[in-house]
């Protein structure tokens, strides 16, 4: 017996929530170790009204910012997107044009910038220069799981996305 579309969607949603939880755990570990303070950026959202059952009606009030922003020990800023897929590749366009513009700006200002992503079971932190220039590097606008392995990071109960060293293509400084 196969899975229904709603079963697959629910499973993918659960995987996405687990992925985000592991990124959040990484942020928590770095804060505890006094290595960085990195916070999830809330979506720009307006509430129109609240229902008696506690639900509400609302709308997105603007373009999304990068998923996470913060400061590394020593004062350098960090900004990154978090993206995951159960497919065999992740599309460059998973980062919207607006998000890419924000990440470009952070990169130009010297921040550590990248995309924390998961393809199937591989988790990596891809430098912004690689994500942005994917077409020139790979000849296409997507990355395969085997290519993500070059940027693979440990997942010891959290995603250890800060493990790569400076001078790694994450920022202009």
Automatic annotation (TrEMBL):
Keyword list, A-Z: Cytoplasm, DNA damage, DNA recombination, DNA repair, Endonuclease, Hydrolase, Magnesium, Metal-binding, Nuclease
Electron transport in keyword set: no
Cofactor(s) listed: Mg(2+)
Gene3D superfamilies in alphabetical order: 3.40.1350.10
Compartment annotation: Cytoplasm
Record bears the keyword 4Fe-4S: no
Classification via InterPro entries: Resolv_RecU, Restrct_endonuc-II-like, tRNA_endonuc-like_dom_sf
First-listed, main subcellular location of the protein, grouped into a coarse class: cytoplasm
Pfam family, one: RecU
Family note: Belongs to the RecU family.
Protein name: Holliday junction resolvase RecU
Native species: Enterococcus diestrammenae
């Amino acid at each position: 017996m196969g899975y229904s579309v709603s079963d697959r969607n629910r499973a993918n949603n659960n995987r996405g929530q687990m992925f985000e939880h592991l990124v959040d755990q990484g942020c928590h570990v770095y804060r505890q170790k006094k290595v960085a303070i990195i916070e999830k950026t809330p979506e720009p959202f307006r509430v129109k009204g609240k229902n008696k059952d506690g639900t509400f009606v609302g709308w997105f009030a603007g373009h999304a910012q990068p998923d996470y922003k913060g400061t590394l020990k020593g004062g350098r800023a960090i900004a990154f997107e978090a993206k995951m897929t159960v497919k065999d590749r992740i599309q460059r366009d998973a980062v919207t044009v607006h998000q890419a513009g924000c990440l470009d700006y952070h990169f130009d200002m010297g921040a550590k910038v990248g995309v924390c992503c998961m393809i199937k079971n591989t988790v990596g932190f891809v430098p912004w220069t690689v994500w942005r220039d994917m077409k020139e590097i790979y000849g296409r606008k997507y990355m395969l799981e085997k290519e993500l392995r070059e940027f693979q990071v440990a997942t010891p109960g959290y995603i250890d996305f800060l493990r790569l060293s400076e001078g790694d293509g994450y920022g202009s400084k």
